[in-house]
Amino acid sequence: MDSKIAPEVAEAEFARFAAAMDLDVDVERMDGDDKENFTKQKRRVTRAIEHGHLVVDDKGQPIFTPQLGDTSPITFFEPTGSALMSMDKRKEGENVAKTYATMGEMTKTSAARFSAMNGRDLKVCQALYLLFLS
């Protein structure tokens, strides 16, 4: 797939998102695993920006447009305590359900939206979720 956005522009948009949401992006202070995971998630997000599937709005919120299935845009809002509490509504061991419930709260949609999503789109949404929670 050809890029629509230059890599340096995608990097700048990622930096704007990270600053607006007060994300810890200081890789020099991360241990090996954290650095590796952060780099992986950042790459997924910047790649989605490069391909035109993800934009950062004027508030710094990422808006992702899935490529397959329900292609209506999804805004990722900064998580609230309520979003994190949605994990408590699931049983122990239901880790995927907990993740999707929290993602549904963060996006003001539903867990079902993510459970029906194709892998290529889901990976970007999960990357945003992980960046918010790291």
Number of strands: 3
The rounded Rg comes to 15 Å
Strand order of the largest sheet: 1-2-3
Q: Count of helices?
A: 6
Mass-distribution shape: globular
What series of H and E elements makes up the topology? HHEEEHHHH
Helix amount, in percent?
A: 40-55%
What is the subunit organization of this protein? single chain
The helix/strand class is: mainly alpha
The overall pLDDT, averaged over residues, is 92
Distance from first to last alpha carbon: 29 Å
- Please, how many domains? 1
Instruction: State the major sheet.
Output: 3 strands, antiparallel
Written account of the structure:
The chain has helices at about 5-20, 30-50, 80-85, 95-105, 110-115, 120-134; strands at about 55, 60-65, 75. It is mostly helical and about 130 residues long. The protein has one domain (about 5-134). The chain has a three-stranded antiparallel sheet with strand order 1-2-3. Helix 1 packs across helix 2 (about 30-50) and helix 2 packs across helix 6 (about 120-134). The longest helix has 19 residues, at about 30-50. The chain starts with 6 loop residues before the first helix and ends with a helix. The model has no long low-confidence stretch (mean pLDDT about 90).
